[in-house]
Amino acid sequence: MDAFYASVEQRDNPELRGKALVVGGAPNGRGVVATASYEARKFGVRSAMSSKRAVQLCPHAIFVRPRFDAYKKASQHIREIFSRYTDLIEPLSLDEAYLDVTEDKLGIGSAIDIAKAIKQAIKDELDLTASAGVSVNKFIAKIASDMQKPDGLTFIGPSAIEAFVEKLAVEKFHGVGAVTAGKMKKLGLFTGGDLKKLSLEQITGHFGKAGAFYYNIVRGIDDRPVQPSRETKSVGAEDTFAYDLSTTEEMFAELDKIAKVVSERLLRHGLKGRTITLKIKFGDFRQITRSQSHTEYSDNFDAILDTAKALLLSAGIGDNNIRLLGITVSNFSSAEDNGPETHGQLKLF
Asked: Where is this site: Substrate discrimination (predicted)?
């Protein structure tokens, strides 16, 4: 989807259309940008950027709080559209998914035509735009989907894949973050073509297990299947506060709210976990985590809250103020203890 959260807000509020819009964070510079409209992106505003930086780049931006219920409703409608064409759907988040259309439920006969039909249905039924990438594997399709945003459709056929990847800048490789891209450039590796010159031994020597993936990708090889169901590894929630918390009472009050959200999500999805992790971000942006594992599986609010409080007290925060707290539950019970072994992927906010 194209600037999904921002596009939903602009669709539902005509006054926001054509405006530089930021979803998440706050105009006072606190918090983090969830997404930004294309009007704001022209000024350099990006998701995961601090609100403070967003305001510096685009002082006239309008900030709105996220409405995740609205985004989830739209996402469910989009998923229903996908299911008209294939049952092999692997959601990555509320606004992105892989589709394997080999099955071609409607007998259309062309992946490009299927992508066009899906894009048009999303436009007609939700008044939103999507961009699609069409290719023979997940890696190339993902890159293609970003090439002509917004409202784009890019096809990269089998005969064009190797030449395309050879020219691709390493930072454009899906899964290559800033740190890895920096390491590659220090080694003189700026494009897929540069990576292709390395032997399997050389590339794994530099990048470990990921090296084997890079070795195959630059040759257009990606055999990962589209997985309609994937095991959920963790469920959590976090919050960035309007002002830094300085007292234990304030921190406990916020942990109470966060623990309730986490417990409700666990109950909703029938999950119980043994490991509880507390995330703490200080006023100076330093970040730490603390974890504790129990012998019993639980989705209980009191158990989650008590553990989070104990982890906070044991973290030795001293006189440091806190700008963010988060709680995550993981290490879920087995199928015998807790129902089905796998669950649809959860993108929780």
From this structure: 5
